[in-house]
Design a protein that fits this description.
With 467 residues, the chain is mainly alpha-helical. The chain has 19 helices and six strands. The chain folds into three domains: 114 residues, Fumarase C, Chain B, domain 1, CATH 1.10.275; 249 residues, Up-down Bundle (Fumarase C, Chain A, domain 2); 89 residues, Ribonucleotide Reductase Protein R1, domain 1 (Orthogonal Bundle), CATH 1.10.40. A hairpin with a 2-residue loop joins β1 and β2. The protein binds arginine.
């Protein structure tokens, strides 16, 4: 324990210092104070206080004249925040104490009345919900921007052909529109998840007070309306102590990052000279300090990398909450940094991906060449035989031997003359070369949700309506 523990109370005592006879150890201040990061909640804290104040005055809990004075003070702090005039010293403990202290400095002791029928426990839950509500809406907007950009690319260049992969081996050809639609479907579900979370974030906890409600005749419905909440939390103990809405947000965020990471991985692969499918614009790449020829895909790499920290925040929060007894515990203060960092990461990654996709160039030739080599139409050839009457297992076998034969000669399937095909099975006919044409093969995959241009066009239209 440090020497300061034995110090007497300082000149500037804490707002809660009534029952204390010693000053806080400076180490404890640094360890327990959240103002270095929760200052971000200030505008939400003020909005919450203004709504609470209005209700207190309406209900006759505090005199209207005093409420007016408090309101003026709160609005002044709001102005100062907007003008960037505020600094947040560590000694102010947290954003809620900061506001009350500043208010007291401005209007005197009457400031203390704002805390009637309220506790920091319901206040902090309120602030975090208001903050998250705003940020989720922002994130949804940014994500919509990315969806629109992808949709544009899919509409304009959706006809380009590239290999589709399984096991990262060329498997079957697809059109680019189909590939991009796969991500658009994922992002559509991400939007749905975020909307779901938003619904459960948008619940008013204020009025729960410390944990058990209050003896004052408050009107929670009024406060909810004032702050745009759709519901009021039904149980005060739950409202001040659960953070499942944070976990849900982090989970939806982690899933979105997982999708971003997969997309980034493909961009990294596609921009390598091994694939050479895309060129990421210079504005979204960086160079090497030693190798002059290098142009590195740092942006998608970093998005892939940052996915780890959002996963980490989700696991961290789950662990923080585990085994917490009801109701508020200081552990809950650990909810904010993971949320702030995740929000910032998600917003940045979304904006960057949007910019990257707006400027990307496709290498049409290498994409199509890759789709033409490597026997990607082997399944189509087997299907051809099945349509002629063979059972699929037998057809699979015939085509397998054909692939081995072609491999030995350094041929593609379409290079094998009909006369030779017939030695593998007499059922082959002239029309086999249509089955082995890239474009007609793709038009054939016309099942619902398949890669045939007709299907993709329909799917793009549907998607456009949904975004
Ligand atoms: N800074 C605290 C937090 O972030 C605010 C609530 C504190 N409440 C309390 N009773 N100590 O969780």
């Amino acid at each position: 324990m440090s020497k300061q523990t034995s110090k007497k109370k300082k000149d500037k005592p804490k707002l809660w210092a009534g029952r204390f006879s010693e000053a806080t150890d400076p180490l404890v201040d640094v360890f327990t104070n959240s103002i270095p990061f929760d200052y971000r909640l200030l505008p939400y804290d003020l909005a919450g206080s203004l709504a609470h104040l209005k209700m207190l005055a309406r209900q006759g809990i505090i005199p209207v004249k005093e409420a007016k004075k408090i309101r003026t003070g709160l609005l002044e702090i709001q102005k100062e925040w907007e003008l960037g005039k505020l600094s947040f010293p560590l000694e102010d403990e947290d954003v809620h104490m900061f506001v009350e202290k500043r208010l007291t400095k401005k209007i005197g002791a009457v400031a203390g009345k704002i805390h009637t029928a309220r506790s920091r426990n319901d206040q902090v839950a309120l602030d975090l919900r208001l903050y998250l509500r705003d940020q989720i809406q922002d994130l949804k907007r940014e994500l919509q921007g990315l969806q629109k950009t992808l949709l544009e690319r899919a509409k304009n260049q959706g006809h380009l052909i590239l290999p589709g992969y399984t096991h990262l081996q060329r498997a079957q050809p697809v059109i680019l529109g189909h590939h991009l639609l796969a991500y658009l479907e994922m992002f559509y579900r991400d939007q749905q998840r975020l909307s779901e979370v938003l619904r459960r974030v948008n619940i008013l906890p204020l009025g729960s007070a410390a944990l058990a409600g209050t003896s004052f005749p408050i009107d929670r419905t009024l406060v909810a309306k004032e702050l745009g909440f759709e519901q009021i939390s039904p149980n005060s103990m739950d409202a001040v102590s659960d953070r499942d809405f944070v976990i849900e947000f982090l989970s939806a965020g982690a899933t979105l990052m997982m999708h971003y990471s997969r997309m980034s991985e493909e961009l990294i692969l596609w921009s390598s000279s091994e694939f050479d499918f895309v060129e990421i614009s210079d504005a979204f790449c960086t160079g090497s300090s030693i190798m002059p020829q290098k142009k590195n895909p740092d942006v998608p790499e970093l998005i892939r990398g940052k996915t780890g920290r959002v996963y980490g925040h989700l696991m961290g929060m789950l662990t923080t909450m585990k085994a917490l007894p009801l109701t508020y515990n200081k552990d809950l203060q650990e909810d904010k940094e993971p949320v702030f960092d995740s929000v910032e990461t998600l917003l940045n990654c979304t904006r960057l991906l949007c910019g990257l996709w707006s400027n990307i160039r496709f290498r049409t030739d290498s994409m199509e060449k890759a789709a033409e080599t490597g026997y990607l139409l082997a399944t189509d050839l087997a299907d051809y035989l099945v349509k002629k009457g063979l059972d699929f297992r037998r057809a699979h076998q015939v085509v397998g031997t054909l692939v081995a034969y072609a491999l030995k000669r350094g041929w593609e399937l379409k290079d094998i003359p009909l006369s030779e095909l017939k030695t593998f099975h007499p059922i082959f006919e002239e029309d086999v070369h249509t089955a082995l044409d890239l474009r007609s093969a793709m038009a054939e995959r016309n099942s619902q949700g398949g890669t045939a241009p007709q299907q993709v066009k329909k799917a793009l239209k549907e998607m456009e309506k949904k975004i």
